[in-house]
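Weekly sync, protein design subgroup
Attendees: M.S., D.O., the rotation student, P.L. (late)

Item 1: inverse folding check
M.S. brought a backbone from last month's batch and wanted to see whether the design step gives back something sensible before we order anything. D.O. pointed out we never logged the input encoding, so this time it goes straight into the notes. Structure tokens as presented (261 positions):
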């Protein structure tokens, strides 16, 4: 076992334990669906939508059934935080510097080629409209280059607790649902742009399903700035959100009507 992997096994479990205590303290009603799609061994790319600052702690739950540690790609600014930086390094996560993203890509590819699980938020930031915004093509490119299955997943609920542009709300008993879809298998001939569009569409379909569920609705007449406008919420529309959100020029708009396959 490598020194790096031994380090992960030392740091990751207590961090997971701390996250569970946090979730218990908040009284979260957590539901995980589709975790059978995460293989117990071998490389896998988990691509999730991004709605809150708690997503990193929660998306890893998708791999709990397979007993795997997920290496997440995250903005390199996190590595400048005095508390978060040692934990991020200890868990083997991968910093992404938008000015030189290739470094993170190569590190993630190496992780996959060594049989590990890599987690990516391809929207490259929190969506303030709570719809799937334009995606970076890295998740698809990694899956295509390594042969790793690409598992799309949606998360919904933590935006009511701690997200961009809204005050924190520590009300107990919030519902949080994670749902993984069927894995997508790509090869080196895959058209990365087209497949990234399709990934965006798959994520939106998964997310729409969660957002429409009764357990994720607001009370009658209550304001819902945490719910998407197209489903009756008060969040900004995608067009309004794009005015304030920062998106790299290389991002790919999602195909909202993907091939059902």
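Designed sequence read out in the meeting:
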């Amino acid at each position: 076992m490598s020194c790096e992997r031994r380090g992960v096994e030392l740091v990751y479990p207590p961090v997971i334990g701390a996250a569970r205590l946090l979730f218990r303290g908040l009284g979260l009603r957590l539901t995980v669906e589709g975790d059978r799609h995460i293989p117990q061994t071998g490389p896998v790319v988990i691509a999730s939508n991004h709605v809150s600052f708690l997503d990193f702690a929660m998306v890893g739950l998708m791999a709990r059934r397979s007993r795997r540690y997920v290496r997440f790609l995250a903005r390199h600014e996190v590595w400048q935080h005095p508390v978060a930086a040692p934990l991020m390094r200890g868990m083997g996560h991968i910093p992404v510097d938008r000015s030189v993203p290739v470094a993170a890509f190569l590190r993630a590819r190496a992780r996959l080629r060594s049989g590990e699980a890599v987690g990516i938020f391809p929207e490259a930031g929190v969506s303030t409209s709570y719809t799937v915004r334009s995606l970076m093509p890295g998740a698809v490119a990694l899956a295509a280059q390594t042969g790793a299955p690409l598992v799309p997943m949606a998360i919904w609920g933590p935006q009511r607790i701690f997200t961009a542009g809204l005050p924190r709300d520590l009300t107990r008993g919030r519902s949080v649902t994670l749902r993984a879809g069927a894995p997508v298998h790509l090869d080196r001939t895959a058209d990365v742009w087209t497949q990234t569009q399709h990934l965006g569409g798959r994520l939106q379909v998964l997310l729409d399903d969660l957002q429409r569920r009764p357990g994720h609705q607001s009370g009658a007449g209550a304001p819902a700035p945490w719910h998407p406008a197209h489903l009756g919420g008060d969040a900004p529309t995608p067009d309004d959100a794009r005015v304030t959100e920062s998106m790299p020029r290389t991002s790919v708009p999602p195909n909202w009507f993907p091939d059902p396959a």
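Discussion: The radius of gyration is 18 Å. The longest strand covers residues 150-156.
Action: P.L. to compare against the previous round before Friday.
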